[in-house]
Amino acid sequence: MTPFSTAFQRAVHFGLLVGVHLPDSKEPVPKPTLERLPEPARSHARSLGGYRQVDWVGGRLALANSLDGLGHNPGDLLPDEHGAPVLPPGVTGSVSHKRTLAVALTARTEHGTLGCDLEDLSPERDGIAERVLLPEELEVVRALPPERQWVGTLLRFSFKESIYKALHPFVHRYVGFDEAFVDPDTDQTAHIELRLKEGEGPFQLEGRFLWLPGRVLTMVRLHQG
pTM for the full model? Predict the structure, then answer.
């Protein structure tokens, strides 16, 4: 597991998913690794420090590899004013990272916009359910066996992060956890209902998730209309 090497590259239902190994260190990213990025992205990376630089570079490497797999030049890979990657015309994508892994998911925009989120299954975090779940979601989670309640909460939390990313190109604002209802299923899909406070839309959403070693990855594809 060489730092900044490709962990996996696979076609999934929504696009091309790429993972990149991250070092569990806040040491500066080595120059040869930075040079794998376009110059504008290298310059931006140099302005970052510690884990933030490590995570950002790993995410951009995953994104560049995924775009290359689609046959697209990655462009500058710079962030917009909200931190989302600016992608070439005709392409949508999303990036996420946790500790030793960064992931990127890309596809052509004709299939809809994308959002993805990577979460560690442990340690469990107390108090999240009450902050991120709607009352009806909380009722469902609390009815689960105790050993499944944390995963039930984490899945819904992660999906809401992915939903926000998929919505970003259309709403350009923070979307609260109470603006989406999520109901994951055992077939690794999820039913999603938007309850946007500012009435944007209509939107149609599809949700899927993957189990990775010690982690879960949620993915959302959004169509307008």
Answer: 0.96
